[in-house]
Design goal:
Helix content is 21%, strand content 35%. With 276 residues, the protein is α+β, with helices and mostly antiparallel strands. Strand 13 (238-243) and strand 14 (246-253) form a beta hairpin. The structure holds S-adenosylmethionine. The site of S-adenosylmethionine has 24 residues, from helix 3 and strand 2.
Length: 276
């Protein structure tokens, strides 16, 4: 669902008035005048915050970075300078023209593309890293689509969170460019781990996972009865937990989980299936 412009205009006005969103003077000399095309005003992320956001997401060669509402293109251009590829979309044709020029100047036009397009009509399924500097309502409106991305996709947002989807990491910093405080949030898109699982072969291990975003709670039992569970974690498609002193690690692929069980008489391959 697309948020209403009235709500966004109000949020933007509050943010500007309170100084939470501050116009950044670097890179582009544009200052925001409060009028804007689309759902979010143009405010550039300071370059040192851009660098930290890309560090937080560990962007490098092999990554495909998509910036939603890409402004003057700095996120995608900086990522391309690190060897990644990607594209940015922005509704404002002036911003797109600047971005193309900035990519050219940086010598990365072959790896950084820009399109004048509505972010709500953009297919960003290809992203290994998704970046944004939007507004809280917009992040929330995008959230269902973001959660549908390939497990393990990294999502970085400047200044605004995703409601009750707790970030995997959060970085607070004061930009040396603008002297304003910035927050960068990182989420790793989690696999769907919820439900009942039955281990194949061996000790008749069964377990049930309750999942809230990337946070999981796990209950398990085997033929002998309930097991003591600790350290249950989900990171993208990787799951790990300890059951009665044995460490289980694995990767979820649809309704199949495959991995290694450590402990007892050494490492052993291990697999489970989701059951109705
Ligand atoms: C806060 S700026 C962020 C620019 C850039 N991502 C950065 O961090 O420096 C938000 C940008 O989103 C663009 N925008 C707003 N609504 C949009 C929409 N519906 N689709 C595409 N771009 C949009 C604006 O034109 C603006 O350039």
């Amino acid at each position: 669902m697309r948020p209403t412009i009235t709500a966004l205009t109000r949020v933007a006005a509050i943010l500007f008035a309170s100084g939470i969103v501050a116009p950044a003077p670097a890179f582009s000399q544009e200052q925001t005048d409060g009028t804007f095309i689309g759902d979010v005003p143009y405010v550039a992320t300071p370059q040192d915050v851009v660098d930290s956001m890309l560090d937080l997401a560990k962007v490098g060669p092999g990554d495909y970075v998509i910036d939603l509402g890409s402004g003057d293109g700095r996120l995608v251009v900086t990522a391309a300078k690190r060897g990644a590829e990607g594209f940015g979309v922005d509704l404002d044709p002036k911003r797109i023209a600047e971005s193309i020029e900035n990519a050219k100047k940086a010598g990365v036009s072959d790896r950084a593309q820009f399109f004048q397009r509505d972010l709500f009509e953009t297919d960003f399924a290809r992203a290994t890293v998704l970046t944004m500097y939007l507004l809280p309502d917009i992040n929330l409106a995008l959230r269902p689509k973001v959660l549908g991305l390939k497990p393990g996709t990294r999502v970085v947002s400047h200044d605004f969170d995703m409601g009750d989807w707790v970030p995997d990491e959060r970085l607070r910093m004061r930009s040396a460019v603008t002297h304003y405080e910035s927050n960068a949030y990182l989420w790793i898109v989690p696999a769907n781990a919820a439900g009942r699982w039955q281990a194949e072969g061996g000790d008749a291990l069964r377990f049930e996972i309750a999942q809230t975003f990337q946070q999981i709670k796990l209950q398990a039992r085997n033929a002998q009865g309930p097991l003591d569970i600790s350290e249950a974690r989900l990171g993208g498609d990787k799951i790990s937990f300890t059951a009665d002193g044995r460490a289980y690690e694995g990767r979820i692929d649809g309704d199949v989980l495959k991995g290694v069980m450590r402990g007892g008489s050494g490492d052993a391959p291990w697999s489970a299936r989701r059951v109705p």
